[in-house]
Structure formats: C-alpha cells, structure tokens
Design a protein that fits this description.
globular, five-stranded mixed sheet
Length: about 180
C-alpha cells in the first residue's frame, strides 16, 4: 500500500457510542456504529474499544486512525477522555499514526461556501454518497445522534484525505 493513500479508520466517539468509517484507496469502503452503553464500567468500555479497534485494524488493513479533537465541554467527561486515551494508546502500541482533527475545520474543508455546520456537512456527504440519505431521517432523537456520529466519522476521513492531497477529493456540488 502506498504511503500517500493508506487505509484510514476514522472514528467518532461519545461516552455511549462509537461510529467509524473505513477508507480504502481514498474511497469510503465501510461505515458503521456500535453502542458502548452495554459496558457498565469505564474499564469495560475501554477494553471493548481496544477490542473493536484491534478487529477493525485487522479486518480492514488499517494504516492510519483519525479522531476528532474534543471540545471544551467534552473534555469535562472523564469517561470520554478515558476512551480517547485508550485510542491514543492503541495507536501508540500498534505503531499506527493518529491524526487528531478539529471537527469544525474538517467540515470547513468539505463546505467551501456557507457555514461549516453538521447539517451542511451531512447534506454535502449525501450529495457525494447518495446511499447515506437513508441515515438523514432518524425517527427518534437517539437515531439522529447515532447517525450524526457516522457522518462525523466520514467527514473526518474525507478531511484527512483532502489535507494530504491539498483539496477534497470530490468535486463540490454546483447548482447548474
């Protein structure tokens, strides 16, 4: 695999959810989410995250991991900070580069005009990947949040690809 186009695992973590997107050869290959709520203790969640990461790295031949930076409010959550530390340690132990991405900057890379909001990023991603449209209509608040994490993971992976290539690898949609 060329070092200019590694397989990337992009993550989006919350205290109770993990979403991920796998990019192979610069293209979205796989995306999914997992709930971490079933693991009652922080220690059990940390172990589960390590196991999930190990399985994803092996199954998808991952070379690099991308993770959004925590904002000020998120840094107050001990459980979330613990999960981030586990991801960092996993990358360190497995000698995989970890890219910490600013979520707003990631969205800004995709959205050339307009506000870099989650809604605008979601609309952009649906334009690029029409099969994602089914995830835009969560029937409950929980489903909406769950799918927002998937969109955040995909945005992070695209931002990493775009930062290495000097631009976003897909054309911006135009209203012709």
């Amino acid at each position: 695999m060329s070092s200019t186009n590694p397989n990337i695992l992009s993550l989006s973590l919350s205290r109770n959810r993990l979403a991920f997107a796998v990019f192979r050869h610069g293209k979205l290959d796989f995306h999914a989410g997992k709930t971490l709520r079933q693991y009652r203790s922080v220690r059990a969640r940390n172990r589960a995250l390590t196991s999930i990461l190990a399985n994803l790295v092996v199954a998808h031949a991952i070379h690099k991991i991308a993770l959004p930076r925590l904002n000020k409010q998120q840094r107050r959550s001990a459980a979330l900070c613990s999960l981030y530390e586990v991801a960092k340690q996993f990358c360190s132990k497995t000698s995989r580069p970890l890219l910490m991405l600013d979520p707003v900057e990631s969205r800004r890379m995709l959205i050339k005009r307009g506000k870099p909001s989650k809604a605008n990023a979601r609309d952009y991603l649906v334009g690029v990947f029409p099969d994602l449209k089914r995830y835009t209509r969560g029937e409950t608040e929980w489903e909406g949040r769950y799918y927002d994490h998937i969109f955040t993971a995909i945005t992070g992976g695209l931002a990493d690809i775009g930062s290495r290539s000097g631009n976003v690898p897909w054309k911006e949609k135009t209203d012709d």
